[in-house]
Write a structure and sequence with these properties.
heterodimer, A: mainly alpha, B: 3 domains, 23 helices, 14 strands, about 45% helix, membrane (chain B)
């Protein structure tokens, strides 16, 4: 449309340059993904002998067969799926409940609850105390150690409270007059109204749980319970970047390195599921992301 | 805090003492009979595991170990890429397993805890365990002493055969009629010939003489300085290698090689795994690896080039005629037993390690059961398919107790006899060379505080000079500045002090 209106050569040049630049830019973003996928299907010998593989001569499913054949990869995948589903559900319940509660003006001690939530913003306890709490609760080596400590965050509670605040109080009142109890107000009025926010937060939580890494390292010892990211770190990260001493390096060098195609296949399997979630939630996302941004 | 810890400690010591008195009273001397009929001892341990799949207590070898040592093992495997953080948190929170593994004695947290008396001093007990105190392990025990006492059970690792040092394509050298290099000039000439004389015979100059990145060239500094590690002994004082003139020569050698096109173009940003991929692809003439890669990596090269022969070189010599070959302390990582473990159990743990350091336990951990996991042919143990199913060979139980043999560093699963025998010859030659490493296992707080940053500055500058992004004059300026740096001086003083302390306590 703009093209038709501005026909001077300067404008056209600008448009062409603009278009070219944007295409280049998007190629720069798409290419790594494309390359990763292609490499994961390439025969490993071919990978070593050819320089840049845009289209493999020999397609191979070996890497995928190997990965899905090892028990540990499948285990870790299911741990991550469990975290992303059960963890997200629990997180939403807790975050939603808590933020709805503190958004209700009738609630007593609301101020002090707010204060305590704010407190977690300002002071974080640090790693060692967290580790000790988790250990003393007997959660070491339990999948719950990856969910319970990160059920919610003060920041999300405040964000969600902002959303609940935007629901008019009169609605709540009307529902009560019609005979709703406290719980049914929450379930039948508040939840349906705040669906966009819930979906948006659900996505935040799901991505967060899918990417569980650090707590996985700290709290899980058994390989069979590692979340996917911990397993990937173990598989993919270059051994020489770790450890200080020369001997440490030499020990690390004794490790068999997985082939590049194997790494790429692992990346593909680990990324695709969470990427697939986005398109389905896209439509809710725009409304959800507005949470708290409009003030009346 | 420390006070309460101490009183807790005293109390637990009393309890332990009381318990042990009771135990000895009840035992009534017939020690053998008592331990036979007794319940298996539960031992909690944690260690690194380099395997891709970790075993658990359903594994045959694990069970065999429990049966033969009358124990119930509770082993936590740590993955090497994430162990650092985890071990430090465990130390800081006091959550220590009965057998605690730490990668290096130089861990600051660990040093403090040893000073505070958190761990058992094992010195008085060791003499009762013949396998642990076998003569061939004597050096391991003496080097790993802290303040003259054995607080740790070192995990054996052979002194020679490991470390990053050139392995070159012998088939290329043979084709071009080249000798194995023994000096830096010869190494340069060999690599240059790889570049120019088309050793792969495809008519194109597509060879990469040396698959290098800045990390893998570390040995060059060692060769030029005639020393290993970061420190050099001069007039009875430890001086940092980074500020030595020889290190400047080393930078210039690497620069010369880089300028001559002997390294990959993206030398500065290559990762170790990428250098390995290059050599696996058959288009590179060599890289720096430990000796067992003659087969671990060499086998992969043969998938692409069937005639490939990947051979470790024995040593390199500097202008002063000092020979350099990588070597290290005869152990890697240490086990400690916290004081919360009662004395009777400490003995049981030592008994377990004694079994594992003996021939039978040692071979069980690495090779498994004869007839099931391996067959003996011509004196070498050939693994059976069952061996792979039970996850032997690539890690697991033999990460708990390494094989007490050079094979740990020079052998590999499936290595053909000719490659193996040549490695044995090379490692025996290497053993004649004692390149000094005066800074080994010296602890200094100033080092931990200041040195990493200084070293990073220098290695960044080195890389910049090598790839031509900065001049050697600026390098000289930086080194001059470091020579006058009070922090580095403090590090050097502390290291010298630690060195003399160690020497006098031996």
């Amino acid at each position: 449309m703009i093209m038709q209106l501005n026909t001077s050569w300067k404008d056209r040049l600008f448009n062409v340059a603009n278009l070219g630049l944007l295409i280049l830019l998007s190629l720069a973003m798409v290419f790594p993904i494309y390359y990763t996928i292609v490499l994961s299907f390439t025969d490993s010998t071919e990978y070593y002998t050819r320089d840049l593989i845009l289209w493999p001569h020999h397609w191979s499913l070996d890497a995928y067969k190997y990965l899905l054949g090892t028990g540990s990869f499948v285990n870790s995948l299911s741990v991550s799926v469990f975290l992303a589903t059960v963890g997200t559900a629990l997180s939403l319940l807790v975050t939603g409940g808590l933020s709805y509660a503190i958004s209700c003006r009738r609630l007593r001690f609301r101020k002090s609850m707010m204060f305590m939530i704010l407190l977690t913003f300002l002071f974080t306890p640090g790693l060692v105390p967290l580790y000790m709490v988790v250990r003393n609760l007997g959660l070491i080596d339990s999948i719950w150690s990856l969910i319970l400590p990160s059920l919610t965050s003060g920041w999300y509670v405040l964000l969600m409270k902002g959303f609940f605040d935007s629901i008019p109080d009169s609605l709540d009142e009307a529902a009560r007059i019609d005979g709703c109890t406290e719980i049914s107000v929450f379930w039948r009025i508040i939840i349906p109204l705040s669906l966009p926010a819930i979906v948006a937060f659900g996505l935040f939580f799901a991505v967060g749980y899918w990417n569980t890494y650090f707590s996985g390292i700290m709290f899980i010892n058994q390989q069979s319970k590692w979340p996917l990211q911990v397993l990937l770190q173990n598989m993919l990260v270059d051994p020489t970047t770790m450890g200080g001493g020369t001997q440490s390096v030499s020990m690390q060098m004794n490790r068999q390195l997985p082939t590049e195609t194997l790494k790429m296949a692992a990346v593909v399997i680990a990324t695709i599921p969470i990427m697939l979630v986005y398109p389905f939630l896209q439509k809710h996302f725009a409304t959800g992301a507005m949470v708290g941004s409009v003030k009346e | 805090m420390i006070q309460t810890k101490k009183s807790m400690l005293m109390k637990s010591m009393l309890v332990v003492l009381g318990a042990s008195v009771l135990l000895t009273a009840c035992g009534g001397g017939s020690k053998g009979a008592a331990s036979d009929s007794s319940e298996p001892t539960k031992i909690q341990m944690q260690t690194l595991n380099y395997a891709t799949e970790f075993i658990d207590n359903t594994n045959v070898i694990w069970k065999e170990f429990e049966k033969r040592t009358n124990t119930k093992l509770d082993i936590t495997w740590l993955s090497p890429s994430t162990s650092d953080e985890k071990i430090n948190v465990m130390l800081a929170s006091g959550d220590l397993p009965e057998v605690t593994f730490v990668e290096t004695l130089l861990n600051p947290q660990l040093q403090k805890m040893i000073e505070q008396g958190v761990f058992w001093d094992l010195t008085p007990y060791l003499k009762d365990y013949p396998n642990l105190t076998a003569p061939n392990l004597a050096e391991m025990w003496s080097v790993s002493k802290v303040n003259g006492k054995n607080y740790v059970i070192p995990r054996y690792y052979p002194s020679y055969g490991g470390g990053a040092f050139p392995i070159l394509r012998k088939d290329w050298m043979d084709k071009l009629g080249l000798q194995t290099p023994t000096t830096m000039d010869q190494l340069f000439d060999v690599l240059k010939a790889f570049k120019e004389k088309d050793p792969n015979g495809n008519g194109q100059a597509d060879e990469i003489p040396y698959a290098a990145n800045p990390d893998t060239m570390g040995f060059v500094y060692g060769v030029f300085n005639g020393t290993q590690g970061q420190w050099k002994l001069k007039d009875d004082k430890l001086v940092p290698v980074i500020t030595q003139d020889e290190s400047r020569d080393a930078v210039l050698w690497i620069k010369k090689a880089y300028d001559a096109g002997l390294f990959p173009k993206d030398f500065a940003i290559m990762k170790y795994s990428q250098t390995v991929d290059l050599i696996r692809g058959g288009s590179a003439g060599g890289t720096s690896q430990s000796m067992n890669h003659a087969w671990v990596t060499g086998e992969k090269i043969r998938e692409v080039v069937p005639t490939a022969d990947y051979m470790p070189i024995t040593y390199l010599e500097n202008a002063q005629g000092e020979k350099y070959t990588p070597s290290g302390a005869p152990y890697y990582g240490v086990y400690l037993i916290p004081k919360k473990v009662p004395e009777a159990k400490v003995k049981k743990i030592l008994e377990f390690f004694d079994y594992a350091y003996g021939k039978e336990g040692n071979e069980l951990a690495t090779y498994g059961l004869e007839g099931v996991h391996y067959k003996v042919e011509n004196g070498r143990k050939i693994p059976t398919p069952q061996s792979e199913k039970d996850h032997l060979g690539d890690g697991n139980m033999n990460n708990l107790i390494h094989l007490i043999s050079d094979d740990m560093a020079i052998g590999a699963v499936g290595m053909p006899d000719d490659v193996y025998n040549r490695n044995v010859d090379i490692v025996n030659e290497r053993k004649k060379i004692k390149t000094p490493e005066p800074g080994r296992e010296l602890y200094s707080e100033a080092y931990n505080k200041y040195y990493p940053e200084i070293q990073k500055k220098v290695s960044d500058m080195r890389t910049k000079v090598i790839i031509g992004k900065d001049t050697i004059e600026n390098y000289d300026k930086l080194i001059e500045q470091l020579r006058n740096d009070p922090n580095l001086q403090k590090v050097a003083d502390e290291m010298t002090e630690a060195y003399h302390k160690k020497m006098s306590s031996k």
